[in-house]
UniProtKB/TrEMBL annotation:
Source organism (scientific name): Elysia crispata
Pfam families named among the record's database cross-references: zf-C3HC4_3 (PF13920)
Name of the protein described by the UniProt record: RING-type domain-containing protein
Molecular function via GO: ubiquitin protein ligase activity; zinc ion binding
Domain RING-type, chain residue ranges per copy: 116-153
Amino acid sequence: MDKTRCGCEKIINEKDHVIEEHKEVIEQHVGALEHKDVQLEMKDREVEDLQRHIRSLMAELDRRRPGLTFSDDEEESSAASSDSEQRCSSMSRSSSSPSDSDSEVSSPDEFPVASCKVCLVKPSQIVFLPCKHLCCCERCAARLHGKNCPICREQNLGYEKVYVI
């Protein structure tokens, strides 16, 4: 009986030792997780600070350029479409008028790259997907991601930069 009792106590002691080792490993993992939580909270605060900084920079940009506001999609699209209509009508008027010389070759300056339909300043370099309208600069396209195309009002699911030569 004593042998059995000694054998059982030995097994119990071994298992207690294994349990203690596992507790130490678990405590180490818990410590590592707590450290990761602290790091994650610091990163979250950093992201929030950067977002606040971006908002303040955008507000400063809006103050410096009062004609550019990105808060209302309807105003953007109506301004863009009215600008497009004006350009089209002026192009059709100029193309319908007879030229003085039919032998003249068109210079590259006669075919400028279309300007951005949102800010009206930078050249259009972005094609919206899926509608494939070439209508915005990179900055404006980034702000319109997930919103509607300013030309056809179809939802913008993405965009690609194109190079017009």
